[in-house]
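Sat 14:20. Reprocessing the chain from the morning session after the first attempt stalled halfway. Input below, unchanged.
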Amino acid sequence: MTREGIERRLAAILSADVVGFSRLMGEDETGTLARLKVHRAELIDPEIARHNGRMVKLMGDGALVEFASVVDAVGCARAIQRGMVERNVGVAEGQRIEFWVGVNVGDIIVDGDDIYGDGVNVAARIEALAETGGICISRTARDQVRDKLDIILGDMGEVEVKNIARPVRIFRVPVNDIEEGAGDAAVTSALPDKPTIAVLPFDNMSGDAEQEFFADGLTEDILTALSRFRGLFVISRNLAFVYKGKATNLQEVARDLGAQYVVEGSVRKAGNRVRVTVQLIDAEQDRHIWAERYDRDLEDIFAVQDEVTTAIVATLPGRVDAATQERAERKRPENMAAHKFVMAGKTLHHRSTKVDNKRSSACWIGPSSSTPNAPTPIPGGLVPWPSRGFMAGAPTATKPGTRPSNTCGSRSPWMTTTAMSIGYSPR
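Finished this time. Tokens:
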């Protein structure tokens, strides 16, 4: 209790609203209220009690709940949202009752059974930013749960919210089991089996607001062009642009986005000249793979944008591919015995004699039966393709007269060593 007689305390606040409540009431007032009461009795109230929460008040289409623990608040929110997904199975889309939920940790003013203050206001504001059936939490809430719950949070960046003096950083909480996981393993399992790249918004360093459009347009053009490469997985524009205009730690951003590589750059204008710089960064190793600078006359802004985009996109995929192969080479072989066979075969092959070529082929046939990541072995008695196959990914024949097939599609540590070695030329 303060000197003025006002009780204050720190609490976790959950704010929830029914999505499209006015429409639902307009279409079926009696039925909507009846369904909402059933959901409260069978799901919402029991989950609040199970997570040690206190229902502060109901507001027709919404609710305000107080928790002593933010872990309990987030756990309750997830349980309710998961339960609603199950309860809406088989219900027509226009008749489903779904919630937006926001959770915040903050100082509150207690007045009898009611609560007030910024802690409550922030919870209500961020709830409005949640997706249908989703949950948003503030940074203060995130800091309390990040090491206590087995979930991966999506960073939505800082957002200006009504009647709150400072921007609020917001995080998206996963609801469905498919979004859950344990730490980095979950991120890895969710990623596709190809290099993942994020293109962050280019910085406008010229102080000219007109160049903001040029920088954003350049970023979007690069995103669009890279997405056409089937060998790359490109993070969407909506996720990447959350970081626009913010000082960021690239490794943290890459981890949040699940990206192995990050492209960043800047635009500067001086008179009728524009300079674009671009960098490709290996986020896991925190090192630059490639960087370039483009100076152009700004006679036709769209022509310059197209030209620079074309130049950048012509280079990036190759650089990413080379970096990915380099990563693979740095990995320790899973089977050291098989690795010795491969290296011995490579040594024999480089002697370039008929006998040694046959011996090297025997070495390469040996390891793969016990090594899951090794390329398909060369069938005995067959002559591999000639020395032009020294390039990685060279094909090997399967039967005389048949079309050769590429057996080196894996990005394992075996790929570069073995694939470059199979193309010997017998003498």
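The radius of gyration is 29 Å.
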